[in-house]
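Session log. Operator J.P. requested a structure for one protein chain; no other inputs attached. Running the standard single-chain path with C-alpha cell output.
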Amino acid sequence: MPWILTLVDVGTQQDRLAFSAGKYLYTLHCAACHGVDRQGDVVRTFPPLENLAKSWPEREMRTLLQDGKGAMPGFRFFDEEQIRALLAYLYDLEDRRAGVDAEKLAAARRPSDVPYAHTGYQRFVDPDGYPAIEPPWGTLNAIDLNQGEILWQVPLGEFSELTEKGIPPTGTENYGGPLVTAGGLLFIGATQDEKFRAFDVRDGSLLWETDLPAGGYATPATYSVNGRQYVVIAAGGGKMGTPSGDAYVAFSLPR
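Structure written below.
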C-alpha cells in the first residue's frame, strides 16, 4: 500500500505570528493524523476537525486534548497558553478573542522544537479511492526461510464491487497475522472486506471464508475444550474506514 508523507516547514519564532500560534502547534502535533488542512485522512481512520463549533463543544475538546481517548493521546505537556492557542485555531477564533498571548508563545520556543512536521499518512489512491498502483493490493505469502524463496503467493481480500464486474480478486490493505494449525490449515482475518478465511497451507488454495461482524485486524488463536478445537478472532474493526466492533468470534467443526 503506497503512502505519501510530505515534510512541511512549520516556521521559525518570527514566522509563527503570521499564521497564529495555534496553527503552529496543530501542524507540529496534530497534522500527521488529522491532515494539514484538518480534513482527516482518506479513509477516515482519523476524523476531520473542520467546523468543530457545530459538532463538538469546546469544553469537551479541551478535555480530550488534555486526557486523550482511544487512539488519541493526551497532550499534558501543553500549558494553558498552548491549549488556548490550539483551541483558537481549531474553532477558528482569533488569538486575541481566545485570550492567547501570541507573542509570548512565539518567544517560548523550546530547544527540542523542530522546524519541520509532516502532513500525515496519506494513502496514494486513485479517484475512486483504490490504491493507485497495479494489483494485487494485499497478498498472503508462504516463504521458505531455508532457501529464501517464495513458495506461493495469493491475493488476500477483495472488493466485492470489483469482483462483480469480473475483475479477479485484487487483495486489500490488511492488518493482522495468520494462525497455522497442525492439520495444515491457515486461518487469517486482516482484510478490509471484514472476512475470516481458511487456506491450505501447502498451496494457498482458499478452503473457506465467512463474514465477521467487524474487521478482524488481529491474529487468531486456537484452543480446545473437552476435546473440541476452536479458532477465535477479535473483531474490533475500526481501521481503513471500516466500522468498529467489540466481538470475539469463535469457530469449530460441527459435533
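Operator note: The two ends are 41 Å apart (CA to CA).
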